[in-house]
Amino acid sequence: MEYDTKGKVLKKAVVWKDLYFYRKADAIYQLTVEFCHRFLPPYGDRTVDQMVQAARSGKQNIVEGSEDGQTSSEMEIKLLNVARGSLQELRSDYQDYINTRHLSLWSSKNERQRRLREFCHTHNDFSDYAPLIAKMNDEEMANLLLTLCHQTDKMMCAYIEKLEHRFVTEGGIKERMYAARTGYRQQVDARLKSLEAENQHLKAENAELRKRLQEALRGPRKT
Is the pTM above the cut of 0.85? Predict the structure, then answer.
């Protein structure tokens, strides 16, 4: 017997390296390392460790969430929200840096901010920003990273919303396993009923053939 095996228990694996918000998060991490190296003291300032760790946590929890997502939608959503929290913490650090040094936080109406926003929107990888690092001062680089953090957060929010909708409609792995088992049993039951009906039909045909054979063996009736 052959059964339909289309029901899937494990979700299709997500290639996290291809996710735009992962690529941006990785760029944020590498840019943060460069920012701290250039503009913060190498020793005696805990801010450096906090910022680098927050940036690393952002990208690493995306990786772990995507890997775990194949078997646990709940864990995927949880870890992606942890990643969001880390990047929000990092964003606060950059805002504090700007405020405490009396630098300018570029508003949405600022022409430089508009150009920066458009550039960040279409560039996701660290290699896109690496040639610019040496040319940027701390104010420019802090505003760049704030823009990247904001865009990455918006992308992750949209992605998490889709995951939550899928979880509500399809359930987690337990629900998918139950659906797969139920579907398999239903197919087996349907096949058995079909075979039973076919068997009854064959029995009826066989009985009719025996009857005809017996009548043939008895020969024609004498008048």
Answer: no
